[in-house]
Amino acid sequence: MNLGLKRKTALITASSKGIGKAVAEAFASEGCNVAICSRTKIDLIEVSEEMREKYDVVPLWCICDLNKSSDIQTTFEAVIKEYGSVDILVNNCGGPVPGYFLELDENDWNHAYEQVLMSVVRFSKLVIPQMVKNKWGRIINITSISVKQPVDNLMLSNSLRAGVTGFAKSLSNEVAKHNITVNNVAPGLTLTNRLYELAVIEAKEKSKSHEEILVEMAKRVPINRLGRPEEIASVALFLASKQASFVTGNTIQVDGGFTKGLF
After folding, report:
1. What average pLDDT does the segment 134-159 reach?
2. What H or E segment, with its residue span, contains residue 91?
3. Where are the beta strands (DSSP E) in 213-257?
4. Contact by Cβ (8 Å): 216, 209
5. Residues in Cβ contact with 203 at an 8 Å cutoff, skipping those fewer than 6 apart
6. Which of 31, 38, 156, 197 could form a disulfide with 16 if both were Cys (CB 3.0 to 4.6 A apart)?
7. H/E segment holding residue 90
8. Edge-to-edge strand ranges of the sheet holding 33-38
9. Using one digit for the tens of pLDDT, what is the confidence trace for 113-139?
10. What confidence tier does 1 reach under pLDDT thresholds 50, 70, 90?
11. Which residues, other chains included, contact 77 with Cβ-Cβ below 8 Å and sequence gap of 6+?
12. Which residues, 6+ apart, have CB-to-CB distance to 243 below 8 Å?
């Protein structure tokens, strides 16, 4: 299937590992110009080399701490200098620290606010003017099933990712007339470093091994397994495609049936 993405420029944030990396590889496989960023230089170099070998694509990579507006600005400027525009923005970030409400202090809230919500706001504000000029654009936010069904011990993620959902829905209405779509992908229990960390925490609470917890997590999913990063990436790829041009303002959960709600 021709997704209409060849030579489009895709910027994927927090893309040296996990879901972000899988998304970057998916766009590379479709012949996109790909820009990746994260805080860790060595990880970016490794991913760049892997993508060159697999897809004959050498991504532009930038060191970027999503909590720093200056890093976001520098990353955007580097992509514009290299490719001229950003056609597709995939806002991804690591999860904020886990914890229950009374365990979290104001610094935790401020850090999560910058990381989860403001990184999306800042990158979106930078890319939209050019998308308006080009009369084409895609903004895709990687959130979590917590926006549909809050997860215990993830107060910050539950709160701030819901904020991203509200922002995206509002923004989608504002920019639709410019042929720009804005959507969210909400992953369920997916095999990433983040899930492993949460399994370790739960294992300590229940005096079990993290391997046992991962097995239990898989049993909570109706499809009876954990998700794979590339399965999340495939949905992001579709939302960027010409085939998804009438899809905007939506949150699509990719969770093996885990979410129990109707909406």
Report:
1. 96
2. strand 88-91
3. 251-254
4. no
5. 209, 210, 212, 213
6. 38
7. strand 88-91
8. 60-63, 33-38, 9-12, 88-91, 137-142, 180-187, 251-254
9. 999 999 999 999 999 999 999 999 999
10. confident
11. none
12. 1, 3, 4
The token pair that represents 17 in the structure block: 């590992």
CB-based burial, 53-90: b 16+ in 10 Å, e otherwise: eebebebbbbebbbbeeebbeebbebbbeebebbbbbb
Identify the H or E element spanning 170.
Answer: helix 155-175
Measured between alpha carbons, how far is 149 from 45 in angstroms, rounded to an integer?
Answer: 36
Top-level CATH class of 9-189+228-254? Answer: alpha beta
Q: What is the pLDDT of residue 193?
A: 86
If you ran DSSP here, which 8-state letter would residue 243 be given? G
- CA angle in degrees (0–180, nearest 5) for 74-76-77: 65
End-to-end CA distance of the chain: 29
Contacts (Cβ under 8 Å, ≥6 apart) of 28: 34, 51, 54, 55, 57, 59
Q: Where are the domains of the chain?
A: 9-189+228-254, 191-226
Residue 42 has pLDDT above 90, yes or no: yes
